[in-house]
């Protein structure tokens, strides 16, 4: 009766079951996986609520690509970062997840393939399955820092590959795309007539400076390329449900892509009028939330480095984002490490296999966590490593 898309294993894993049991018993869990900024103890300025005090929100005038004023606000966001993005290359969505769905509809037929990074965010398989698209993976390798294995990218391409996905900076490795990597990817995509899709939601959260990094694909001309972001991370406002796609590449391809994306968007018209009307003010007010997140991540990272110095855990080098990856001794599996921390110390972390790490043993911790929880949790983690 139901679609073959719903083939996933829906049973809860051991870590989830143990967490539920702990909470049911009244345990105080030190959650080092927090990814929701609205739950992280940040201060949200009153201007965010004031952004919705606008009578124009009461009129519904659907625009498939998004209300022009909202797209101008997104264009201004890029201009402040040194990138010229014309309004007519911007299409609004309700989220980056929806943006992926639109782009898969634009680029693929059923049974086609997309190439995604490993390790990285685990949502790709679900998004692709929803569009009847297959996922293949290319490797990120670590040699004192993370990089794209361009050979594995080329090896992963088939006649049915329609797009290569980048997460820039990657989640959870915190690694940015480098200029030589982008040059190799754009040349490959232009030659094979496939697209680049760049998820840039964490691009504003750099932890250091490096002129060799690429912070956005906005402005790429060599091949068809899409840059995605949204209020969820840019302004710490996931509940506002506003994302966007910037279309880049050769003029003819870019124009056709914009036209077809508007057809897709016009079918759904998912973005609410109020959030579009409020976009400029939300982006402005969100800068203060973003500043708090950057300061929080930097302070938590500094504490983690000091707390773990001399311990059996090693923090893999990162360049940005909200997460750190801990390499821990292989005397246990990642799952056993995570379960042991939860059972013995009431500390919740994520095992590396949640993100498709290719080897053991890694644990992933969120720098967004409230400082008092983060510090106590790291101290307990160090004790368990002894």
What would you say this structure looks like, in words?
The structure is a single chain. With 386 residues, the protein is an alpha/beta fold. Helices cover 39% and strands 18% of the residues. The protein has two domains: 129 residues, Aspartate Aminotransferase, domain 1 (Alpha-Beta Complex), CATH 3.90.1150; 237 residues, Type I PLP-dependent aspartate aminotransferase-like (Major domain) (Aspartate Aminotransferase, domain 2, 3-Layer(aba) Sandwich), CATH 3.40.640.10. The chain is built from 13 helices and 16 strands. Helix 5 links the parallel strand 3 and strand 4. Helix 1 runs parallel beside helix 12 and helix 11 runs parallel beside helix 13. It starts with 13 loop residues before the first helix and ends with a helix.
- Distance between the first and last residues' Cα: 53 Å
Strand order of the largest sheet: 2-11-10-8-6-3-4-5
Tell me how many strands there are: 16
* Annotated CATH homologous superfamily of the largest domain: Type I PLP-dependent aspartate aminotransferase-like (Major domain)
Helix content: 25-40%
The figure for the number of domains is 2
Low-confidence stretches: none
Task: Assign an overall shape.
Answer: globular
Q: Can you write the helix and strand succession as a string? A: HEHHEHEHEEHEEHEEEHEHHHEEHEEEH
Supply the number of helical segments: 13
- Overall SS class: alpha/beta
Mean pLDDT: 96
CATH topology of the largest domain: Aspartate Aminotransferase, domain 2
What is the quaternary state of this protein?
single chain
CATH architecture identity of the largest domain: 3-Layer(aba) Sandwich
> How much strand content do the residues show?
15-25%
């Amino acid at each position: 009766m139901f679609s073959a898309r719903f083939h996933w294993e829906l049973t809860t894993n051991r870590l989830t079951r143990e967490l539920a049991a702990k909470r049911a018993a009244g345990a105080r869990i030190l959650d080092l996986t927090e990814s929701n900024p609205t739950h992280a103890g940040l201060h949200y300025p009153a201007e965010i609520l004031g952004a919705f005090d606008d009578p124009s929100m009461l009129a519904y005038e659907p625009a498939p690509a998004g209300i022009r004023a909202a797209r101008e606000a997104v264009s201004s966001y890029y201009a402040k970062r040194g990138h010229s993005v014309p309004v007519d290359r911007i299409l609004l969505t309700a989220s980056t997840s929806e943006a992926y769905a639109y782009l898969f509809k634009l680029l693929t037929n059923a049974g086609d393939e997309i190439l995604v990074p490993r390790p990285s965010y685990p949502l790709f398989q679900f998004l692709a399955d929803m569009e009847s698209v297959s996922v293949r993976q290319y490797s990120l390798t670590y040699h004192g820092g993370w990089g794209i294995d361009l050979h594995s990218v080329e090896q992963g391409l088939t006649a049915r590959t329609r797009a290569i996905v980048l997460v820039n900076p990657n989640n959870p490795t915190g690694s940015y795309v480098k200029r030589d990597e982008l040059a190799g990817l754009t040349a490959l995509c232009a030659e094979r007539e496939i697209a680049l899709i760049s998820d840039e939601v964490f691009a504003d959260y750099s932890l250091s400076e490096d002129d060799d990094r690429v912070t956005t694909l906005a402005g790429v001309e060599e091949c068809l390329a899409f840059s995605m972001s949204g209020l969820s991370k840019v302004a710490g406002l996931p509940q506002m449900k506003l994302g966007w796609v910037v279309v880049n590449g050769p003029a003819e391809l870019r124009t056709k892509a914009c036209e077809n994306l508007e057809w897709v968007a016009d079918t759904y018209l998912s973005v609410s009028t109020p959030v579009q009307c409020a976009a400029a003010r939300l982006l402005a007010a969100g800068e203060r939330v973003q500043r708090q997140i950057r300061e929080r991540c930097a302070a938590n990272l500094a504490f983690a480095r000091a707390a773990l110095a001399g311990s059996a855990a090693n923090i893999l080098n990162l360049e940005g984002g909200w997460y750190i990856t801990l390499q821990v001794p292989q005397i246990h599996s990642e799952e056993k490490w995570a379960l042991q921390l939860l059972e013995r110390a009431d500390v919740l972390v994520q095992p590396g296999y949640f993100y498709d790490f290719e080897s053991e043993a890694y644990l992933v911790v969120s720098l967004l966590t409230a400082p008092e929880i983060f510090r106590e949790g790291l101290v307990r983690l160090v004790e368990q490593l002894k």
